[in-house]
Amino acid sequence: MMADNNDPKEMLDYPDPEVLLGEDADLRFLGFRKVFVSVFDHWLSREEYERLFPLGEDQQSAYVEARRKFYAGLEGDKYRYSGRYELLPELAYQVELGRLVDGSKLMNFYVPRYKMFVEGSYEHTDVIYYQDASLMQDALEGARECGLHVLEE
Question: For a Cys-Cys bond, which of 7, 30, 88, 113 suits 93, CB 3.0-4.6 Å?
Answer without folding.
Answer: 88
